[in-house]
Amino acid sequence: MPSDATPDPYADPLVFGPRLQILRTRKGLTREQLGGLVGRSGSWVKGIETGRLKTPKLEVTLRIATSESPGRTPWNAPALAPRTGRCRWTRPGRCAGP
């Protein structure tokens, strides 16, 4: 578990909502911003995060995963290539190196 006591969303067995909240806050997005990126409201995002609403359908989940706001990378962006610090995109979510 990280030193700030928030669970690791990749290692800990979390349900979708809390995992979404952790990743959203780590990206520095508000609920309204994330909702706007996927065509929903901030209250919809809150409902998903708190478990009031069910996990969204795959289509919406994929939109969340591939959404990006200006100046930010997609949620599923790979780390920079270690050799050059650059990454060449071949397909969404795939880095082919320099």
TrEMBL record:
Gene3D superfamilies: lambda repressor-like DNA-binding domains. InterPro entries: Cro/C1-type_HTH (IPR001387), Lambda_DNA-bd_dom_sf (IPR010982). This is Helix-turn-helix domain-containing protein.
